[in-house]
Amino acid sequence: MINPTQNAREFGQDEIIVSKTDLTGRITYVNDTFQRVSLFSESELLGQPHNLIRHPDMPRCVFKLLWETIAQGRELFAYVKNIAANGDYYWVFAHVTPSFDEAGNIVGYHSNRRYPDPSTVEIIAALYRHLLEEENRHANAKDGVNAGYEMLLKLMEAQGVSYDEFIFTLGNIQNTEDLDQALFSFRKAS
How many Å apart are CA 117 and CA 18, to the nearest integer? Predict the structure, then answer.
């Protein structure tokens, strides 16, 4: 297990971090940018589960949504906080898509990750703290993931937007105070 630091890793706004996985999420390809930013070598990454770089600040319910979406053959955009080999963190704006064979069967997944907007990261980080708090309120991890997932879906519903719309517009949430109020209203209604 990697011990997280409070140090941020940076990469250029024109750079793209690329990886591919098989159907089970094991890494089959990484580009040089992925290796440089994550501080893992290609040999350390290939064959490993992609969640090797999952930062503990990331709520698992976001990955539940991701896997459900891409397994249905759809793309997903998400803000993700990753962890590097030395424990440093780096935020990305990920675009994850299924890869298809000639017959239209899903054979793996492809992810392009770009530099995220810092003001958006501040709001997403606050949302993720709330989702993680909800997940951690439950003794059973599966129950926690499901509760966080339900909270995420209800928040989108309360904002009157789909997940994709929320990610690209942040709904009506413009700052962390608005997010706190929306989540407080959700908890009172639950």
Answer: 18
- The pLDDT tens digits along the chain (190 residues) read 899 999 999 999 999 999 999 999 999 999 999 999 999 999 999 999 999 999 999 999 999 999 999 999 999 999 999 999 999 999 999 999 999 999 999 999 999 999 998 888 988 999 999 999 999 999 999 999 999 999 999 888 887 888 888 888 765 566 667 666 666 555 544 5
- Coil, strand or helix at 116: coil
Measure the CA–CA gap between 140 and 82, rounded to whole angstroms: 24
What pLDDT digit, counting tens, does each position of 74-121 carry?
Answer: 999 999 999 999 999 999 999 999 999 999 999 999 999 999 988 889
Neighbours of 140 (CB within 10 A): 9
- Third-level CATH fold of 17-114: Beta-Lactamase (3.30.450)
What's the CA gap between 36 and 44, in Å, rounded?
Answer: 12
**Segments making up each domain of the chain, as ranges:** 17-114, 118-189
Nearest CA-CA partner of 153 in 107, 186, 104: 186
Instruction: Give the span between the Cα atoms of 124 and 41, in whole angstroms.
Output: 29
The alpha carbons of the chain give a radius of gyration, in whole angstroms, of 17
How far lies 180's CA from each of 27, 109, 130, in Å? 36, 34, 9
